[in-house]
Amino acid sequence: MLQPDGSIIELCHVVSDMDAALWHWTEVLGAGPFFVGEMHFSDGQFHRGVATPVALQVAFGGSGGLVIELVKPLGEHPSVFREVLDSRGPGYHHVMPRIDYDEGFRRFSEAGYALAFKGSMPGGERCAMFDSRADNGGFIELMDLSPMIVQQLQRISLAHQAWDGYSDPVRPMSELFA
């Protein structure tokens, strides 16, 4: 079961070694299984107002109703992930609350957080990250939670509930779309 509306639905860590991070989160912390793949976006992505391509290796796993995201930036393009990895190394990056995109955008803008990233997903869902490091050490991510995105998040949660904690801790991202 996913976290309810108004709560934190995702916790993200930026990583430099995906295999080591996957081992830590599955073997040590018991989160998972993780669905791993690469994401490449060439158009419509803006880091601090400047158009830039985005290339990431990502892994999504579950822990109760919380989605754990691991992100490894690929290449040297500027990004919110590269900012954190280059300045302090692997670790906490962002949270994503389960709120309406427009409401969250207004709320975080009014709170004075700078828009650090704005883009869209392949399905057209809007995505933004606000720099809230002064208050929480990371960023706040907003995303349009379309029916397709919610279905993927539910699959992550259900996979965690059904997982025995040992078998197939790392799975291809394509399983989320099956």
What does this structure look like?
With 178 residues, the chain is an alpha+beta fold. Helices cover 28% and strands 37% of the residues. It contains five helices and eleven strands, in the order βαβββββαβαββαβαβ. The chain has an eleven-stranded mixed β-sheet. The longest helix has 16 residues. The chain is globular, with a radius of gyration of 15 Å. It starts with 7 loop residues before the first strand and ends in a 6-residue tail after the last strand. The relative contact order is 0.22.
Please render the helix and strand layout as text.
Layout: E1 8-14, H1 18-28, E2 34-41, E3 46-47, E4 50-51, E5 54-63, E6 66-73, H2 80-88, E7 91-97, H3 101-110, E8 114-120, E9 126-131, H4 133-136, E10 139-143, H5 147-162, E11 170-172
Parallel strand pairs: 1-6, 2-11, 7-10
Antiparallel strand pairs: 1-7, 2-5, 3-4, 3-8, 5-6, 8-9, 9-10
Main sheet: which strands, in order across?
4-3-8-9-10-7-1-6-5-2-11
| Sheet with the most strands, sense and barrel status | 11 strands, mixed
The number of distinct helices, counting runs of at least 4 residues, comes to: 5
The mean pLDDT is: 94
The number of strands is 11
Order of helices and strands: EHEEEEEHEHEEHEHE
User: Which stretches are low in confidence, meaning pLDDT under 50 for 5 or more residues running?
Assistant: none
Distance between the first and last residues' Cα: 19 Å
Indicate the proportion of strand residues: 35-45%
User: Rg, please?
Assistant: 15 Å
Helix/strand/pairing category: alpha+beta
Quaternary status? single chain
